[in-house]
C-alpha cells in the first residue's frame, strides 16, 4: 500500500481522510507543487520550494515546515527511485462552508507519490513527438500561482483529447501563453523563443532550466510575445514540465510543424537536459 503524508503524519493511502468542509475541496482554496525525484533525490527542489512559497504568499497561507525533509522521507517510504511528489496545501477546514475565512485556520497538507520516467535512461528515441491544439485561455490572471483550481486546464485538455491530440496550447488576446500543464517553446532560425514570464503563465522550473542550459551553451533565447502565425511557422515547437522534461510538438491544429519531425535543437536540448540531470543526481543535491 502506498504511503501518503497528511497533516504531519505518514499514513497508508486508504487511511488518509480529509474533512468534506476542507476549503481545498469546496473552493479550490489551495496550491500545489509537482516535484520529480530521481534515485530518491529531489530535482531542482529549491526552485520548486521557492515557487511553493510564492504560491502560498499569493493566497496568503502562512505555514512553515521542513519540506525537503518531509518529501525526501515520503519518497523513501515509497521505495525511493524515480517518483514525482504531489504536494497540496489547502487553507484548511472551519467545519462549515463560508467564502470568508478565519486567518488562524490550520492548513491541510497532503503529499503523495507517482511513478515517473527517467528519460536519461530511456534516451531520445523513446520520446515521441506529440500533437496539440490551440484553444482559448479562459483562466484567471494569476497563473503564476500554482493553484489547484484547474477547471479551465482540464476542459482544454479534454478538448485536445477529443480532437485526437495530446496537449492543449492556450492563447489569450492573440498571444500564446502555455499548455494545459506545461510551458511552451518554439525555435525559429536557431533562436529559442518562449512567452515572457508574467502572471499569465506559470514560472515553470523546467522552463527556467532550459533557458539556463541554453545560456551556458551559447544557444540564443528570447522571452517574447508569440502569436499564432509565428508558432505555426516555427522550425520546432516544444513543451516542458517537471514530469515530461522537454517534448517536441510535431503537429498543431492538424498542421505539421516544419517537416513534422523531432528537430535538431530539441535533440541538443534533450541531451543537455539529461546530462545535467545525471550530473546533478550523481553529485547529490
Ligand atoms: N504542471 N504550466 C502549467 C500550467 C503547469 O501546470 C506546469 C506543470 C508547468 C510546468 O512547470 P514545471 O516545469 O515547474 O513542472 C507550466 C505539473 C507538472 C502538473 O500540474 O502536474
UniProtKB/TrEMBL annotation:
It comes from Amphritea balenae. One of its GO terms (cellular component) is cytosol. It is an enzyme of class 4 (lyase). Pathway: Cofactor biosynthesis; tetrahydrofolate biosynthesis; 4-aminobenzoate from chorismate: step 2/2. Its cofactor is pyridoxal 5'-phosphate. Its EC number is 4.1.3.38. InterPro entries: Aminotrans_IV, Aminotransferase-like, BCAT-like_C, BCAT-like_N, Class-IV_PLP-Dep_Aminotrnsfr. GO terms for biological process: amino acid biosynthetic process; folic acid biosynthetic process. Involved in the biosynthesis of p-aminobenzoate (PABA), a precursor of tetrahydrofolate. Converts 4-amino-4-deoxychorismate into 4-aminobenzoate (PABA) and pyruvate. GO terms for molecular function: 4-amino-4-deoxychorismate lyase activity; transaminase activity. Pfam families: Aminotran_4. This is Aminodeoxychorismate lyase. Belongs to the class-IV pyridoxal-phosphate-dependent aminotransferase family. Keywords: Aminotransferase, Folate biosynthesis, Pyridoxal phosphate, Transferase. It comes from the Bacteria. The keyword Flavoprotein does not apply. It catalyses: 4-amino-4-deoxychorismate = 4-aminobenzoate + pyruvate + H(+).
Amino acid at each position: 500500500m502506498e504511503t501518503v503524508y497528511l497533516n504531519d503524519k505518514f499514513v497508508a493511502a486508504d487511511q488518509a481522510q480529509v474533512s468534506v468542509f476542507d476549503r481545498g475541496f469546496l473552493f479550490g482554496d489551495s496550491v500545489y507543487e509537482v516535484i520529480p525525484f530521481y534515485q530518491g533525490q529531489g530535482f531542482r527542489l529549491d526552485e520548486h520550494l521557492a515557487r511553493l512559497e510564492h504560491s502560498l504568499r499569493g493566497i496568503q497561507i502562512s505555514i512553515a515546515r521542513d519540506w525537503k525533509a518531509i518529501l525526501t522521507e515520503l519518497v523513501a517510504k515509497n521505495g525511493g527511485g524515480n517518483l514525482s511528489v504531489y504536494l497540496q496545501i489547502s487553507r484548511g477546514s472551519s467545519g462549515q462552508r463560508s467564502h470568508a475565512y478565519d486567518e488562524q485556520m490550520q492548513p491541510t497538507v497532503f503529499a503523495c507519490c507517482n511513478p515517473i520516467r527517467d528519460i536519461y535512461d530511456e534516451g531520445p528515441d523513446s520520446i515521441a513527438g506529440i500533437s496539440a491544439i490551440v484553444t482559448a485561455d479562459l483562466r484567471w490572471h494569476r497563473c503564476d500561482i500554482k493553484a489547484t483550481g484547474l477547471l479551465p486546464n482540464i476542459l482544454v485538455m479534454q478538448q485536445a483529447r477529443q480532437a485526437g491530440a495530446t496537449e492543449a496550447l492556450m492563447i489569450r488576446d492573440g498571444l500564446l501563453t502555455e499548455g494545459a500543464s506545461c510551458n511552451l517553446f518554439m525555435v525559429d532560425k536557431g533562436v529559442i523563443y518562449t512567452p515572457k514570464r508574467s502572471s499569465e503563465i506559470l514560472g515553470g522550473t523546467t522552463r527556467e532550466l532550459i533557458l539556463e542550459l541554453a545560456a551556458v551553451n551559447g544557444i540564443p533565447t528570447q522571452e517574447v510575445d508569440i502569436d499564432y502565425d509565428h508558432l505555426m511557422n516555427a522550425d520546432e515547437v516544444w513543451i516542458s514540465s517537471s514530469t515530461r522534461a522537454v517534448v517536441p510538438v510535431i503537429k498543431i491544429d492538424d498542421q505539421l510543424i516544419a517537416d513534422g519531425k523531432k528537430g535538431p535543437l530539441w535533440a541538443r536540448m534533450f541531451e543537455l537536459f539529461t546530462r545535467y540531470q545525471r550530473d546533478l543526481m550523481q553529485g547529490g543535491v
